[in-house]
Amino acid sequence: QVFVTAPSAQEAKGALDEILSQGSKIKIGDIFQAKVKKITDFGAFVEFRPGQEGLVHISQFVPWHLDRVEKIIHLGEIIPVKVMEIDQEGRYKLSAKAAGFQSKEKQHG
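and the corresponding structure tokens:
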């Protein structure tokens, strides 16, 4: 049994929904709002649940060739991501473009 107290019923429901979502199993196809934690030459690591991180490969941001991830995202930014694969070691491979990410940067070329 779980008891949640909050200043309002709406805040209590939000807290309860968050608690319940923590226990649900992550599946391929799930979409999350993720925080950019680290940017590398090959993509970005994002936290899509507290303590749960995954990689968005540089090819999974936009439908055109991107040479630098920093052109379209920044550390701390919140972006949508979709779980594309969970490998045998439990690592999450994510896609921003499959989750509807829209870059402010326009295609070059």
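(Above: one complete record from the training split.) Residues 9-23 form the longest helix (15 residues).
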